[in-house]
UniProtKB/TrEMBL annotation:
Top-rank taxon: Bacteria
Keywords: Membrane, Transmembrane, Transmembrane helix
Residues annotated as transmembrane: 42-60, 72-89, 95-115, 122-145, 181-199, 205-232, 239-258, 331-350, 362-389
InterPro entries linked: WaaL-like (IPR051533)
Record carries keyword Plastid: no
Organism: Geobacter hydrogenophilus
The protein's name: Uncharacterized protein
Length: 401
């Protein structure tokens, strides 16, 4: 190979390297913003997508899918949501609310296009370790609040807006206990599942502890469920399984020590807890709404649509039963197609020979289940994770390090 050929190759590779380097920075910004500012209270979340759009104008790469799959992807995440938006606006929905509730779809497409410039494993690693840093902060902040540290007061003021979640003291029985529940807390469930199946018990333990101190009952219950599957059904190293059992035995006294947490968990499972009663009330209200207006079951009310919650005596636009909320907004046919898409990606990853892909498939499944217990199923963060898992499958040959 002569010097002119080498020079030509360098000329071609430099723009590619620059594009990948900038892409890595944008992916890092997107994950950081949509995890630490999931509710948009700081405005970083919106700025990150503006940066991503600017990046795409300079470094655009096409979809890696075949044509039928890309058409399905665009139908589910662009065409149908836009039609649903027009439907809700025609029916009198509030414009700002309607747009706010459907922006997750174009945001996920923007993210999907951005990650074409980086290796699939990079986008996954950024998500995992950004979430792990959040878990460490949740645990540390909980401990600081126990000891009434002035640093805890600083964080409580910084995250005082409901857009960030809740940081404060909640009554449990006759006592007040620290409660650190940030918007992205439920996304610790797939982090735990991924690290559990990737034989990284310390990482998994950090995610699990954060869910416990956040009093995430649904999150902890799902982690326990996937741990039982891992111990009973998963083919793995017996020594590692023994280590997982030891870790759970070690953490059991801590969980049981949170007497209020265990009582609330049991009350939630039996439907006696206050939050469970609220969800049951939503279920009754949705049943009434679909009975009175069967057409809404097929085409949905659209983003921004409201319905009367009998248990609250008020009209609401979001509920914590997010699978049913998605049906209410976009209709049952769309939700079935959306669910089939998610489960297909999860199953194909799970059937892979690569441990990392199997772990990601189970992580996606766990998140899909967890997201139904809080209004995060149609959030940018969930759809970004799903887009990342989809990209990981379609470009899995690039994920080998």
């Amino acid at each position: 190979m002569n010097s002119q050929s080498i020079h030509a190759m360098n000329q071609e590779s430099f723009p590619e390297c620059r594009s990948q380097f900038l892409g890595q920075g944008v992916v890092l910004l997107l994950w950081f913003a949509n995890i630490y500012d999931m509710g948009g209270g700081f405005g970083i979340k919106y700025a990150s997508f503006a940066v991503a759009l600017l990046y795409l104008t300079l470094h655009f790469k096409p979809f890696p899918m075949d044509r039928p799959t890309s058409h399905l992807f665009m139908f589910l995440f662009l065409l149908w949501p836009v039609l649903a938006l027009l439907h809700s606006l025609t029916a009198g929905a509030e414009l700002s609310l309607a747009i706010n509730q459907m922006t997750a779809f174009p945001a996920s497409i923007v993210f999907f296009l951005v990650i074409q410039s980086v290796r699939p494993h990079y986008a996954l690693s950024v998500f995992l370790y950004t979430m792990l840093s959040l878990a460490v902060i949740v645990i540390a902040l909980y401990l600081l609040m126990w000891f009434t540290s002035p640093f805890a007061d600083i964080f409580m003021r910084m995250f005082s807006s409901e857009a960030h979640g809740y940081i404060g003291y909640r009554p449990f029985g006759n006592i007040f206990m620290p409660n650190v529940y940030l918007k992205a807390t439920l996304f610790l469930v797939p982090v735990y599942v991924y690290f559990l199946f990737m034989a990284k018990p310390i990482h998994a333990l950090i995610a699990l502890l954060a869910l416990v101190v956040a009093f995430s009952k649904a999150g902890f219950a799902l982690c326990l469920l996937f741990t039982l599957y891992f111990l009973l059904m998963h083919r793995g190293d017996r020594r590692y399984k023994a280590a997982v059992i030891v870790l759970f035995i070690a953490i059991t006294p801590l969980v049981l020590g949170f007497e209020q947490f265990t009582e609330e968990l049991l009350r939630s499972l039996t439907g006696e807890a206050e939050t469970a009663q609220v969800r049951i009330g939503y279920l009754d209200s949705l049943y009434t709404m679909f009975g009175e207006n069967p057409v809404s079951l097929l085409i949905g009310q659209g983003p921004g649509g409201v319905f009367y919650a009998q248990n609250l005596g008020a009209y609401v636009s979001n509920i914590e039963l997010d699978h049913l909320n998605a049906i209410r907004k976009f209709g049952l046919p769309w939700f079935l197609a959306f669910t089939a898409f998610v489960l297909t990606v999860s199953y194909r990853l799970f059937r892979s020979q690569q441990a990392e892909e199997r772990a990601l498939g189970l992580a996606l499944l766990s998140l899909f289940i967890a997201a139904g217990t809080n209004p995060v199923l149609l959030s940018p963060t969930f759809l970004m994770f799903m887009a990342m898992a989809t990209d990981f499958y379609w470009r899995r040959h690039e994920s080998v390090r």
